[in-house]
Amino acid sequence: MSARDEVLGRVRDALAGVSPAVAVPAAPRAPDRGDLVALFAERVADYRAVVTRCASADLATAVADALAGARAVVPPGLGLDVAGSVVDDGLTAAELDALDAVVTRARVGIAETGTIVLDHAPDQGRRAISLVPDLHVCIVDASQVVADVPDAIALLDPARPLTWISGPSATSDIELDRVEGVHGPRTLHVLLVG
Predict the structure, then answer these.
(1) What's the CATH code of the domain at 98?
(2) For residue 20, which phi and psi values (nearest 5 degrees)?
(3) How many structural domains does the chain have?
(4) Is residue 69 part of a domain?
(5) Amino acid 182: pLDDT
(6) N or C: which end of the chain has fewer CB within 10 A?
(7) Residue 76 counted as domain residue
């Protein structure tokens, strides 16, 4: 018998005859915040991100404007032609570092917190492309915006890798001087479609 089996056996013995825990009550729901898309845009902007609202028909132009000539990497399933971009086919960290920007879509946007969640599906690409380039242009459809974190969790697959983004990457030193871009993109530009 291994030490693990012995410990688990002792736990099972200790729990014999104990009734199961009571059901956990549901989390309280956030009050109705009205226009979730407007709240999302406001909260994202509070994090020093750039927010541009556009119609689906204007998305390609909005992406081009957000990139302003920057050399970008895109995931293979983006579903949008981005002029002059490089499709990620397993680019190395050095190759990603040589690019200025990344364009991805998102899985969900959370209005209450202004957070964007990527689950790294083909339209979002692997985690490295959203962390290495200095500019992240993220496309969020208005229909993807939910009220709060519990609503987002209900839509996410816990087996997938998740990246939660609340503004540009930032940290503060001991003097509380804010430094952006240390652990990810220095600039976040959200294109809110719809």
Answers:
(1) 3.40.50.10420
(2) -60, 155
(3) 1
(4) yes
(5) 59
(6) N
(7) yes
Confirm whether 110 is domain-assigned. yes
Query: Domain of 78?
Result: 34-193
- pLDDT digits 0-9 by tens, 97-120: 999 999 999 999 999 999 999 999
Residue 161 lies in a domain: yes
CA pair distance 14, 33, nearest whole angstrom? 47
87 and 97 in contact (C-beta within 8 Å)? no
Structure tokens at 59: 């998305």
The full length of the chain comes to: 194
How confident is the model over 120-150, as pLDDT tens digits? 999 999 999 998 999 999 999 999 999 999 9
